[in-house]
Amino acid sequence: MTTPREYAREHRTRFVEELKTFLRIPSISTLSEHAADVRRAAEWLAEHMRLVGIQHVELVETGGHPIVYGEWLGAGPEAPTVVVYGHYDVQPVDPLDEWKTPPFEPTIIGENIYARGATDDKGQLFIHLKAAEAYLKTSGRLPVNIKYIFEGEEEVGSVHLDTFIAENRERLAASSAIISDTHILGPDTPSIVYGLRGLAYIEVTVQGPRNDLHSGLYGGAVDNPALVLARMLAQLHDEHGRVTIPGFYDAVRPLTPEERENLARVPYGEEELKAETGVPAAWGEAEYSIVERIGARPTLDVNGMWAGFTGEGAKTIIPARASAKISMRLVPDQDPDDIAQRAVAYLQDLAPPTVTFSAKTLHGGKPALIPLDSVPMQAAAAAFETVWGKRPIFTREGGSIPVVATFMDVLGAPPVMLGFGLGDDNLHAPNEKFYLPNFYRGIETVVEYLRLLAEMS
User: What does the record give under GO molecular function (predicted)?
Assistant: First the structure.
C-alpha cells in the first residue's frame, strides 16, 4: 500500500497546480473592492476541502469576511484532537511596479513560486490539506481528529475570529492547535517558533489650519502640521533605540539565561541582517543580540506617514493636517490596550498648542510563549528531524499572530507554530515567494507530525 508520504511525493505536480489556482484569487481583505474576491477564495477553499475528504465544511458568516470551517473526527474519542488554523486573505500588492511577475499569476522561477499569498498564508495553509489528503487517499483515515479554521481577516487584525472561537468553545474543543504562518531559519535549518510578539497599532493625526494654506502668505506664522508630527515622532526613541513612552517597559518579562543561551544558537546576526534587507548597518538596543531585538524585545515603528501635496511638480502649501500609523510589537507580559493608551497619552503631551491632536486604536493582539516540553512541541520537533534529518532550533518570532494567545486562553489548546517559509520570502512586500522544496517537505512533515502526535499522546 502506498504510504501517505509516498502519495505526497507522487502528486507534487498536481498539488502545485492546485495551489496556483488558489493563488490566482486576489483575496485582499484590506481593500473593499476585493470583498467579492475574498468570498470567492473562501468558496474555492471550502470546495477543495470537500474534495480532499474533510467533513462538515461550511462558510461561517461574520460581520466581515467568512470563516471556512471543516472537520474530520473519525479517529475516535481517545485520539488527540487538533485545531488547524490558517488564513486565506492576503496583503495588498503595492508597489505594483516593483513586482517582477504579476502578483496574482503564480510563476515558478527556479525552485520558488512567486505570487501574493504564496507563503503568507495560502501556501502554508495548503500544506495541511495536502497532508490530510495523503492520509485519506491511502489509509482512508487520519491518525488524529482535526478541526480546521481558515479565516479571511488575518491581514486586517482578525476582528471577528475571537468572537467565533469564544462562541464555539465546545465545538472547537481540542487538546492542541497547529499554525503554519511562520518561517524556518534556512532551507536546511529547521526551526520552531515558541514565542510571538503581540501588537498595539494606532493611527494619529495633528490638525493645524482648517484647510491647506499658501505657504508664501502664512509661512512663519502658522505651524506646519507635517513638521510638528515629524518632531513628535522623532521623540519616540532615545539615542540608544529604546522607546521613550513612560511605562513602556514596566511589564516586560526579562529573558532568562536559558532563553538567551537558546536564542544564541540561531545562526543570524548583523551580517545576515544586512544581506537579507540591504541596510548598511543594524540598529537598536546594543545590549541585546539581533535575534533578541527582533523576536524577544518590544519595539515601536512608524508604518506610514502622509501630509500635504505629494504629486508631481510643486505646490507651495502648509498642509492642514498630518497623520501617521504606528505599530508597537509587544512581549510578555505587556498588554496591548495599556500600551496603546500610554502611547496616545505620551503623544498628546508632545503635541504643541499650535495643533490639535487626535488618535484611534486600529487593532492589537497579545504576545504568547509556548512551553517547549509539551507533547505537541516534542512531536513537532521529532517530525522535523524525521523529514529534514536535523533537530530543529527553537526560536522566537518578531511578528504577531493573535490567535495563538486566543487558543491558549479560550480553548486551553497549546499551539505549535509549524512554519515552512523562509526569511527572504518577501512577506507583505513585492515578489512574495514560497520555496517549493519547503512546500513538499512541509507536507511530509505534517504527515509525520500527525502520526507522532497520535503515538506520543
Answer: metal ion binding; peptidase activity
